[in-house]
Amino acid sequence: MKDKRTYNKLKEHGEDMTHENESKITIDPNFKKESESDLIASLTEQYRIELHQYKERESLHLRTENQLKATKQIVIEMASTIRELKTQNDNFQAEIARLREEIQLLEMQIKK
User: Fold this and answer.
1) Are the C-beta atoms of residues 20 and 5 closer than 8 Å to each other?
2) Contacts of 5 (CB under 8 A, 6+ apart)
3) Chain-centroid distance, C-alpha 90
4) Which residue in 7, 17, 68, 99 could disulfide with 12, CB within 3.0 to 4.6 Å?
5) How many structural domains does the chain have?
6) Which string of b and e fits 75-94 if b means at least 16 CB within 10 Å?
7) Is residue 24 in some structural domain?
């Protein structure tokens, strides 16, 4: 079985083969108005279903986008808090070192 149609004759090269996958809609001359209204109702229902699916995808997208923004804000706040804590920690370490030196000086004065 061939995957694609190939030209067998020279005159076929001028023909457009893109129409091979297209479907044709033929309207039955005996098509009744009831069938037409059924078709319209069916298409309307299909449109409503597709619209509902689109709205669900849109709401999911908005929810995800809002969660992303909130998460980004939390990360920014946490980073600034970490910087503040690091600064405080460095200050406390310097204060501890200063107090240790002062304790050593006082111990030396007591020994004298």
Assistant:
1) yes
2) 17, 20
3) 40
4) 7
5) 1
6) eeeeeeeeeeeeeeeeeeee
7) no
